[in-house]
Structure of Gluconokinase:
Amino acid sequence: MSTGVIVVVMGVSGSGKTTIGECLAAACGVEFGDADRLHPPANVAKMVAGHPLTDADRWPWLHTVLAWMNDHADGVPVTDLGKELDVVAVVGCSALKRIYRDVLREAECPVRFAYLRGTRAVLTERLRHRQGHFFPEQLLYAQLADLEEPGPGEDAVVASIGPPPDEVLRQVINGLRGGATA
Ligand SMILES: Nc1ncnc2c1ncn2[C@@H]1O[C@H](COP(=O)(O)OP(=O)(O)OP(=O)(O)O)[C@@H](O)[C@H]1O
Ligand SMILES: O=C(O)[C@H](O)[C@@H](O)[C@H](O)[C@H](O)CO
């Protein structure tokens, strides 16, 4: 069994999970898994119609994400940074509630969460400017209502999304190394 870590980049829609997660995976030389692409079609249809997902909608999806994580738990980091941090894969997943994160913590390797924290104003602005994506902006408010920020016992890295992606990535990497973040 691998002892390497899977990093789950989490946060509400528009916080930068895909952007920062892909950068982190590339910097570590490991695969990136986008949980958005693992939703069953019924969930996507619901969100496109403007309806927020419920717990019942999210359980099967979270288990699909967990299966992806288990398939990648034996990944091997290629770059020096990946080896230093022992990151074997990176996932972008909203993981809004602690009970959702607890499902992902059942993975066959250690899991660290990197929470991308942003103000409502910045998040709204980012979603407004994003092209070709299915997520309606009004669902952001439902996601913010569902969001439970990681608590003290969760050992999560927290990064502020205000600065450009390179700086957000630096905060995440610094946090994974055990240093100060946002
Ligand atoms: N630090 C940043 N500075 C400026 N723009 C950013 C930053 N991070 C992400 N963006 C932009 O904000 C938008 C949302 O980012 P992204 O799609 O990565 O978010 P997400 O959390 O994956 O969203 P979703 O959950 O809806 O897929 C994109 O247009 C992206 O290019
Ligand atoms: O938990 C959820 O409500 C979903 O995962 C959403 O976060 C969407 O998948 C994503 O944000 C789409 O852009």
Q: What stands out?
A: The mean pLDDT is 93. The chain has one domain: 5-176.
